[in-house]
Description:
The longest helix has 41 residues, at 2-42. The protein is 79% helix and 0% strand. The chain has one domain (2-164). The chain is elongated, with a radius of gyration of 20 Å. The chain is mainly alpha-helical.
Amino acid sequence: MEFLRKSLAWIAFIIDKLSGCVIFISLLVMTIATFSQVFCRYILNFSIPWSEELSRFLFTWVVFAGVPSLVYRSGMTAFNLFLLKMSGWKAKLASLLITSGYILFFYYLSTGSIPLVKRQMMQMATSIPVSMGVIYMAIPISAFLTIIVSLERLIHTWTVTGEEH
C-alpha cells in the first residue's frame, strides 16, 4: 500500500507540473497572438485571421489543464471552506466523500466526452488547419488526469491520521 501511495503521489506531482507547463505555454502563446493581432490591426491596418480562434482554443486547454492541478493543490474553495469548519473523523469522512465525488464526476465526464471527440475529429476549425476533435480532446485528457490525482488524494486522506490531514 505504501508503494502505491508513493507512486501515485509522484505521478500526481508530475501531472501538476505538466499542467503548469501547458498553462504557461498556452498563456504565453495567447498573449503573443493577441498583442500581435492588436499591433497588426491598429498599426499595420492588417488583421490576423487566426489569432482570435487560436486564443479561444488555447483558453479551452488552459481551463481544462488547470483542473488536475486545482484538485492536486486542494483549490476547490467551496469544499475547502466546508472542510475547514470540520475536524476529526467528520472532516476525514467529508473529504473522502468529496474526493469520491470528484472521481465519479470525472469518470462520467471522461467517458461521456469521448463520443464528442470522435464526432468532431472530421470537422476542421475555421481559420486554423486543426481538427476540432483535437481541441475537444482537452476534456477527456483533463478528466482522466484528474481521476489519477483524485485517487492520490483519496489514498492520502485515507492513510493520514489526526492533525496531519
